[in-house]
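ingest -> validate -> predict -> emit
validate: passed (alphabet ok, no gaps, 239 aa)
predict: started
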Amino acid sequence: MIEGKRHIAIWQPYFFPYIGYWQIIHAVDLFVVGDNAHFIQNSRIYRNSILGQGCKPQNFGIEVSQASCTHLICETSRVVNLKRAEKMCRVLEYYYSKAPYYKDAMNVIKPILFDEESDLTRYLVKQLKAVAEYLGIKTEIRLLSEVSARWDCKAPEVIRRTCEHFGITNYINSITGTKYYDKDAFREMGINLQFMRRNDDIRYKQRCDEFVPDLSIIDVMMYCSRDEIHDMLNRYHFA
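emit:
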């Protein structure tokens, strides 16, 4: 956790995102969900990966209705399908029933899978808050659409306006942002931009001999205690 904080981050809502996503939420005071970004097909917005057959990543996700990259995430609906939810629970039981924290994790995951919220944004935010509570993350979560319903500008200007709106000038982005954002350009806008990279030593015992990284937080919750996960949340550095 950053000492003193007063940091902000913006990210699209993901379905049970990987540990790096949660590290950023944990590191900031305010996490802004980019609900008015464009929906992206075949993205982590509505699916992620669990540890599947043969210790290979396997897709695990929800259904969305008439999803299109011409629509915003907040304009997209989730298909409420209780039979699919039951199947997803059976899949998790098949792959994780012998994991040490299976029952604890399922107490959080199962209600999310069976939630009948059809609005994709509301559903994903409820999911983020439920998992954050389990992980002991107390960061405030808000919506980007509170700042502006739609955006007519590029991402750096969106970030600048959002920082100005909430009165926070320290902005954290994942390390992938180095491809798109320049620290000097942000400094000229009055924003201190930092890129977070999770430590390479984040490993935990899965059912496989060789560790499989970058899976959904579901995998972490199944194999690690909340204390162990809390330790992982703080294992990052800035590039």
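The beta strands are 7-11, 30-33, 47-51, 57-61, 64-65, 77-78, 140-143, 170-174, 192-198, 236-238.
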